Amino acid sequence: MSAAAGAVGVGFIGAGMISDTYLENLTSFPDVKVVIIGDLDAERAAAQAKKHGVSLSGSPDDVLTHPDVEIVVNLTIPQAHVAVSRAAVAAGKHVWSEKPIGVDRESAHLLLAEADTAGLRVGIAPDTMLGPGLQSARRAIARGDIGVPLSAHTTMQYIGPDTFHPNPEFLFAQGAGPLFDMGPYYISALVNVFGPVASVAAVASRGRDVRSIQVGDRAGTEFPVEVNTHVQAIARFESGATSDSVFSFDSALPRAGVIEVSGTEGTLVMADPNMFTGDVKITRGAEQTASGPQPLWETVPVAGTEGGRGLGVLDMARAIRAGEQHVATGELGFHVLDTLLSMDESAAEGRFIEVESTVGDIPLVPLDRDPRQKTL
């Protein structure tokens, strides 16, 4: 492995749809250098390398054995996340994984234990939490702009990813569905605001047992649905705050990015947690109009530099060099997975589930942090 100085070498395992946005950003951040792209489909890896100006491509093993790779970016399907991340740790690499960290508690816990023993870091998406949208909302809440935060409401519903993804089967398989595919954005945001989740309860349903691909060369191909596609959940946090959430692939009415935090002195509407920035607004009351009471809105200035997907990898890289804590830690990723699994179990068992894991304080991102500034 290269000496611990200068830009941090990054290798990709997984060259699918999501790799484009990661590569667009990470190849533009001067503090990291994308060394190699690996995939089980070598041709796909080569095509992505050529498209994004990366000099090397090959297999996952080629990434794991490359001496200049310090961080492996794991963009495989959820069922493979832990196996690939453990292989990276065994090869002496830090690892950043797409969400969720895994599909079960036991293997995810083993990954974190092995990384800790090896003195290596694990980072888990989403890294949208590092963006100006969520960070500005957190600062407003910390300032007391809505008093003491008490509760939150979130909604993420639409008809489903089979309408736009050419290979959507994995999004309806174990470890995915709306709860595990989109839930990490919302639960991560709520944990950033309220701290660790203490207990959850949920109900769930499955609109259809079979779906069909609607775009691409495989349009019309049917596939089984393995998971619940509509989940309604409530959570109680260790702080005493509560939240209610909808996660659905069964709604013809799209409504996503809804995340509202109510406090003793007002309600804050956050930016979409699936995005890095967006509007942040506060209402502390309403005015009477002919059509009824309408909220009076104040805009919260959104400050900071938007970086896009890959920002968490960059944050890890800089933290590795500085010997500091990175933001989207494996500990946080595990707590989010534990919470989502507890919601899934609650829906199956019809009872409240205590969340066993916890997570420490999550640091704010400095306002002057610029992903496109060379600091290493």
Automatic annotation (TrEMBL):
User: Any idea where the GFO/IDH/MocA-like oxidoreductase domain is?
Assistant: 135-268
Q: List UniProt keywords, sorted A-Z.
A: NAD, Oxidoreductase
Q: Write down the Gene3D superfamilies for this protein, in alphabetical order.
A: Dihydrodipicolinate Reductase, domain 2 (3.30.360.10), NAD(P)-binding Rossmann-like Domain (3.40.50.720)
Which GO molecular function terms does the record list? Answer: nucleotide binding; oxidoreductase activity
The protein's name is Putative dehydrogenase
> Per the UniProt record, which residue ranges are transmembrane?
none
UniProt domain Gfo/Idh/MocA-like oxidoreductase N-terminal: residue ranges? 9-123
Q: Which Pfam families does its entry note? A: GFO_IDH_MocA, GFO_IDH_MocA_C3
Q: List, alphabetically, the InterPro entries matched.
A: Gfo/Idh/MocA-like_OxRdtase_N, Gfo/Idh/MocA_oxidrdct_glycsds, GFO_IDH_MocA-like_dom, NAD(P)-bd_dom_sf
| Highest taxon above the source species | Bacteria
